[in-house]
Design brief:
Layout (H helix, E strand, L loop, with lengths): L1 H14 L2 H13 L3 H19 L2 E4 L1 E6 L25 H14 L3 E6 L7 H14 L4 E5 L5 H10 L3 E3 L7 H7 L6 H14 L2 E8 L6 H14 L3 E6 L16 H14 L9 H6 L3 H6 L5 E2 L6 H4 L19 H10 L3 E3 L11 H5 L6 H10 L4
Parallel strand pairs: 1-8, 1-9, 2-3, 3-4, 4-5, 5-6, 6-7
Helix pairs in contact: 1-3, 2-9, 3-10, 4-5, 5-6, 6-8
The structure holds iron/sulfur cluster.
């Protein structure tokens, strides 16, 4: 591919058809020599430098319910898993997670759950507006699944800034092989377009190496992202859960996820893209590798410690060290060692912020570092 060709990737990815894209993905997975992949990863990091000054944004993740009405075949908390431990956080407990996160310096919270009707639209609005009242300087991201246009509109009006809803695969047949009949790709896509229309910063994304995935279905993921133009993209490896029908499948080599992260950065240079906990779980150095391949977000967990293991989407999910809020100072150090800049601000997409605001980002102070070290002791 060579350095010149790497620089041509953004325009190629923006115009190529499905066959050309799948050929490129296949080549990168199967044939590309290490030095070409290194060039690709370095170029992806350069694009993050151009658009965000090499910043890595922190989000405090609050997994507030492990109940779900759905039954995605790959997921450990799908409704049919009788072994899953179910919990819900009260509204006050959720606010308390935010209070702890705010004290640590977080200015961006992600509220994630299964699709749990216990949290009605009114309850979700109360939670969002409660956080906004307490912390008007913080961004709130919801990741609570498929709801109606009116519900999404209510959450937005209550103050939600962003919405994450991975599409998981943009290929109809592949989607059907990962989900039961009631769950459709059409509905998932429609939700994502509705969210954009309302004005959210929207996140889509997919698993890498999920059962029955091919280079062709990945090409469709690229084409879908190209059309949707999401502000965020969650791309992490498939990791099997022992209580699911996919227990016998294995995770892909990390290289595949890194290639897809880099390609997505080339396709959507301003995208906010986490180095996922799944990548860190599948590969001890996964977080650093992801950040060195174009990812620019980390999402340490603010979920109460006694509940973290129960939000078990896949086996052996990490919930300590850099994946936990208590490990904040270590995580910051790791990011700096990569030549990147930890950033605890709201971390909006570049089209939703101005650069002056980003330049004013408060430094990660010594006091915050101390609070980070103390955090685990007070839970
Ligand atoms: S992936 Fe999400 S929607 Fe599907 S079963 Fe798991 S928690 Fe529910």
């Amino acid at each position: 591919m060579g350095i010149c060709q790497v620089r041509l990737l953004p325009s190629f990815l923006n115009t190529a058809g499905k066959h050309e894209l799948s050929d490129l993905i296949r080549y990168l997975f199967e044939e590309a020599p290490e030095d070409e992949l290194s060039e690709l990863f370095a170029f992806a990091v350069e694009l993050n430098r151009e658009n965000y000054g090499g910043r890595v944004f922190f989000r405090g993740l609050i997994e507030f319910s492990s109940f779900c009405k759905n039954d995605c075949y790959y997921c450990g908390i799908g409704r049919s898993n009788v072994n899953a431990v179910r919990y819900r956080l009260s509204e006050e407990q959720i606010l308390d997670c935010c209070r702890k996160g705010y004290a640590l310096g977080f200015r961006s919270f992600v509220l994630q759950s299964g699709e749990d009707g216990y949290y009605t639209d009114d309850a979700a609005c109360r939670i969002v507006s409660g956080i906004k009242e307490l912390f008007p300087d913080c961004a709130v991201t919801l990741s609570i699944g498929e709801r109606s246009y009116d519900s999404y509109r209510m959450f937005f009006d209550a103050g939600a800034d962003r919405y994450l809803l991975r599409h998981e695969t943009a290929d109809e047949a592949h989607y059907s092989s990962l989900h039961p009949p009631g769950q459709t790709l059409k509905k998932r896509k429609l939700c994502l377009y509705k969210l954009k229309e309302i004005g959210y910063q929207v996140g889509a994304g997919f698993m890498v190496g999920s059962p029955y995935q091919t280079c062709e279905t990945l090409a469709e993921d690229m084409i879908f992202l190209r059309g949707l133009q999401p502000h965020m993209a969650g791309i992490g490896p498939f990791i099997p859960h022992s209580d699911t029908r996919f227990a016998g499948f294995s995770s892909p080599p990390s290289k595949m996820t890194l290639i897809l992260l880099s390609l997505t950065r080339c396709l959507l240079p301003k995208v906010l893209m986490p180095a996922t906990t799944a990548l860190a779980t599948a590969d001890k150095r996964g977080r650093a590798k992801g950040l060195s391949a174009g990812a620019n977000v980390v999402m340490p967990c603010l979920t109460p410690r006694d509940r973290r293991r129960d939000y078990s989407l896949y086996d052996n999910k990490l919930c300590t060290g850099g994946e936990a809020a208590e490990g904040l100072s270590d995580l910051r150090r790791q990011i700096e060692e990569l030549g990147l800049k930890p950033d605890l601000s709201r971390g909006d997409h570049a089209d939703f912020t101005d650069r002056a605001e980003m330049a004013d980002t408060p430094a990660f102070s010594g006091a915050e570092q101390k609070r980070s070290n103390d955090y685990g002791k007070h839970e």
